[in-house]
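Reviewer 2 asked us to include a model.

Predict the structure of this chain.
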Amino acid sequence: MAEEYTLQHDRPVCIGCGACASIAPDFWEMNDADNKSDIKGGVSKPGDQQELKISQPDFDINMEAAEACPVNCIHLIKNESGEKLI
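Predicted model (structure tokens):
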């Protein structure tokens, strides 16, 4: 079975640099209203957080986006163990 992950975005911390949208445009887009990024198809959570369930094929590109984020507001969680990878 393929590993499943949760992509999390701590939106209040986002500074709108656009690195995530440049690296992974299939998953990230810039919001014109406040110039912060949004997870495409993400579910809104309390505190202006966003989440999206992803599978192994989508992991690497989102890890690259998370590692490029200068304020560390993108996180990847292993669903099975709850381990926060970034």
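The longest helix spans residues 56-68. The first strand starts at residue 4 and ends at 10. We have added this to the supplementary material.
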